[in-house]
Amino acid sequence: MPKTLLVSLQIPNYETILKFMTDTSQLWYSLNKDCGDIPRTPVESYSDSKEQTNKFSDDIAALSQKFPQLASLLATNKNEQELVLEISLKEIFVLCPRGRCRLDRYSKLQEYLKENYNTTLIIKSQKTKD
Question: What is the mean pLDDT of residues 67-91?
Answer without folding.
Answer: 84
